[in-house]
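Hey, quick one: can you model this chain's 3D structure?
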Amino acid sequence: MNDSFKTFEHAQQVAVELAVQFGPKLLVALLILVTGYYVGRWVGRMTDSMLVRLNLDEALRQLLVRMVRLLVLGLFLIMALQNLGVQLLPLIAGLGVAGAGVALAMQGVLGNLAAGLTIIFTRPFHVGEYISIVGEEGTVEEIRLFNTVLSHPDRSRVVIPNRRIVGEILHNFGTLRQLDVTVGVAYDTDLDLALAAIREVLAAHPHILDEPAPVIRVLALGESRISIAIQPWTHVEHFYTASSDVTRTVLETFRTRGIRIPFPQHDVRLLNPA
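Sure thing. Here's the predicted structure for all 274 residues.
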């Protein structure tokens, strides 16, 4: 019983000595880290406001702000460790060895990181543009370090790992898309009248752009009709609505003006009828 009491008393004495020796240093180190956190946020806000004036891309701006915050916090962390009396050289060597092992275990993640940096600095697309890549398409919603988020037309979100983007063929529509509507008219139709009706429909639609100018052309001569291609431009967010509206309005206008859209027809001749 006495031995247990002496052991407890010795442990209590050691704890008090450690608290007296390292307590103030630990408290100062915590204060340094807290100060570093708030200084990093302040420097980050200042950096962000400066980069906004330089009209940098949003994804690149966010990356630079994060790097500045981490750099400031890293400097304060070094100050905190030095205050505690930690030898930094052996610590850095140990972190280097551990980092090599982590890098081997996280090749996919690091590949996404490297690809994300490539996308941010080369900027093959920007937030708000409509792209098609690796069998997926949508409006770029976010460009992150490890993945890119697309907003799909069906209101879902597509998350693509960045390493799947770099090196692939990318179709960047930008912020505009071209409609591709085809309508057929009968061979006895006055083409000038039909083309004028189509131009009126496009000019009256609020989401069809004047620039670039709409493309309206005779596309092909089919078996029973003349095909006319209607290819105006609209903003990405209006693409599906405008496509539906133009198709419906052209149909109604043709009906009103007596322009006939023929059905497929086949002439059948009977040879040697019974």
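One thing worth noting: Residues 102-106 have pLDDT under 50 and may be disordered.
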